Fold:
Amino acid sequence: MKALVIGASGQVGSALLGQVPSGITATGLSRDALDLTDETAIAEAIFDHRPDFVLNAAAYTAVDKAESEPELAQAINGDAVGAMAMALLETGGRLVHISTDFVFDGEQSTPYAPDDQRNPLSAYGETKAAGEDVAGDDAIICRTSWVYAAGGANFVRTMLRLMGERDELSVVADQIGAPTWASGLARTLWALALEGQPGTYHHRDAGAASWYDLAVAIYEEGRAIGLLSRDVAISPIATEDYPTPAHRPAYSLLDDSETRALLGDRPPHWRVNLRKMLQEEQRLG
Ligand code: NDP
Structure:
């Protein structure tokens, strides 16, 4: 079987290409090979490769910047997904598309199930919801949250950098979610591609955290393995004390019980995966 991985140089795209299941030949396309603002190029890529699966790991992921560039975010997160779905209608392959906890408004206090009401608070969330809507009836959509990977652009690596520079850090403590390692997500995406029926799924690492909890864990784990050496005082603050252009859900835990029942697995607690990622980060230097 053939798979096309779009967004090949991103966190999830790289993780997907790093663990291609046996029996699948995967081709990765990064932005220089396929720009998702070009819908004709999307169709041509799918007609050329005629893949059994398209795994779309590309997205406009700059959550705050999307507030000032909503059209570009819509083109990449919404319209491009529709173009993939249209081309696949002709070639017959299946779209495996990644979406986000930011399609929810965070008003719930129990984990969001796949069919819970969406109500995005941000332009990023709106455009990701639009992408879900045009992915097509045959698509597998997998929402996830707070993704990080060694070498990627993410909160964990931002914290590592700041903890190497500063004596004090203030981190938002009233947004709750689940940090999720790209590696485990990639395993779930391949498994869903091979075993899942069309529909919407959730994947996240076990447990829950605030950004503050995650920062403290990064500090403790980073110190324990010698990746961090300075003393840093980390303080919890409220969202209102750290204003950003985009509004984020205060609570965005995803209920992944249906995914786990289907795949018969249990992702580790987020802190276990964080430790593995930090060790990989250390190896990469
Ligand atoms: P990254 O930002 O690491 O990767 C996104 C990739 O999309 C990048 O390689 C980027 O290319 C590519 N891309 C952006 N614009 C274009 C374009 N116009 N044409 C082609 N490629 C483009 O994100 P992640 O790997 O973390 O995200 C993967 C998926 O997971 C996305 O759908 C995202 O919405 C979703 N998600 C991510 C979360 C997170 O916390 N990161 C949380 C929840 C969901 P380039 O490298 O050239 O910029």
User: Anything to note?
Assistant: The domain at 2-154+179-207+254-268 is CATH 3.40.50.720 (Rossmann fold). Residues 7, 9-13, 30-31, 34-37, 57-61, 76, 98, 100, 128, 144-147, 152-153 surround NDP (CB under 6 Å).
